[in-house]
């Protein structure tokens, strides 16, 4: 029989939390609250929580709230490992569940390094990219939750599968360039200590846009190929969603560029990046089939 509701609830919570921490981190950056807690692991020397005497004002509460969410992520990640071991104990899902848990620990360390380096753009970018990888892993656990222990059967021609993997690689480049664009723009994460890349924002933005155009072309190619192949309709439907999310992201990205990067659009773009990772993971999972789990 299918996995129980509690199992699905835990895996969905795991995915939602991983997406949520990206949005939360974006809020920290866009409000200039990255150094709201100027030390780590304590918020200020001698206290793990904000204190009234801090000079950081409301920024301390935003940064502390983001740190608190990391604890929630860790708890949900532990529950995810338990759920996978209990109800879907296949090796590939075990590896994914443990990866998320270890990734949360890594993110906590990276967060501390980011604070101690006063929001150096390299550490901030790495922080985001690790989160994107954890979103992909959590999304995989969600979409593959009812698969069995057998070997996957590819539902599309091998060439289509290879192009799909190339699309994922280009998507990773797009995300990476996006972090460089952000690290070259006005939203440094702290108004008093702006740490930026030394790139020209206009040049790096156009480079990012060029990569996006290539990515859109590859997504269209995979979507059309899945429609023309003998794959089930669910495969092309999944890639249609990837295309729609991609186009929406491109639109938001263009509008935020011409409107001088208003914070609300930048935050929307960050959420869209997480949504694109989820959609792309879904598309990749749907390219193959593994027999459904049956249990007595």
UniProtKB/TrEMBL annotation:
Organism in which the protein naturally occurs: Knoellia remsis
InterPro entries: COX15/CtaA_fam, COX15/CtaA_HemeA_synthase
Pathway the protein acts in: Porphyrin-containing compound metabolism
GO biological process, any: heme A biosynthetic process
Record-linked Pfam families: COX15-CtaA
Keyword Cell membrane attributed: yes
Location(s), subcellular: Membrane
Protein name in UniProt: Cytochrome c oxidase assembly protein subunit 15
Membrane topology category: Multi-pass membrane protein
Main location: membrane
Keyword Transmembrane helix appears in the UniProt entry: yes
Ranges annotated as spanning the membrane: 9-30, 69-88, 95-116, 122-143, 163-184, 204-226, 238-257, 263-281
GO molecular function, one term: oxidoreductase activity
Keywords carried by this UniProt record: Cell membrane, Disulfide bond, Heme biosynthesis, Iron, Membrane, Metal-binding, Oxidoreductase, Transmembrane, Transmembrane helix
Top-level taxon of the source organism: Bacteria
GO cellular component, one term: membrane
């Amino acid at each position: 029989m299918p996995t129980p509701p509690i199992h699905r609830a835990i895996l969905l919570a795991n995915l939602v939390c991983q997406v949520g921490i990206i949005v939360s981190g974006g809020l920290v950056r866009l409000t200039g609250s990255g150094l709201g807690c100027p030390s780590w692991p304590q918020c200020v020397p001698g206290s793990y929580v904000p204190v009234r005497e801090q000079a950081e004002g409301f920024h301390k509460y935003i940064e502390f709230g983001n740190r608190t969410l990391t604890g929630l992520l860790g708890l949900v990640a532990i529950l995810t490992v338990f759920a996978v071991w209990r109800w879907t104990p296949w090796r590939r899902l075990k590896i994914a569940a443990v990866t998320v848990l270890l990734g949360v620990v890594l993110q906590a360390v990276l967060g501390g390094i980011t604070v101690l380096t006063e929001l150096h753009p390299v550490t901030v970018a790495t922080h985001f990219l690790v989160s994107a990888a954890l979103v992909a892993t959590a999304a995989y656990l969600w979409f593959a939750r009812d698969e069995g222990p057998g070997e996957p059967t590819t539902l599309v021609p091998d060439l289509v599968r290879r192009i799909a993997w190339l699309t994922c690689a280009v998507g990773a480049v797009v995300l990476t360039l996006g972090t460089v664009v952000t690290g070259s723009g006005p939203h440094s994460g702290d108004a008093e200590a702006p740490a930026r890349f030394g790139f020209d924002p206009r040049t790096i933005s156009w480079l990012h846009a060029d990569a996006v155009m290539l990515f859109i072309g590859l997504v269209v190619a995979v979507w059309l190929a899945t429609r023309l192949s003998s794959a089930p309709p669910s495969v092309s439907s999944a890639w249609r969603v990837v295309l729609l999310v991609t186009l929406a992201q491109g639109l938001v990205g263009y509008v935020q560029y011409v409107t001088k990067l208003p914070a609300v659009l930048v935050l929307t773009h960050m959420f869209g990046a997480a949504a694109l990772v989820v959609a792309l993971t879904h598309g990749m999972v749907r390219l193959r089939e593994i027999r459904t789990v049956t249990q007595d």
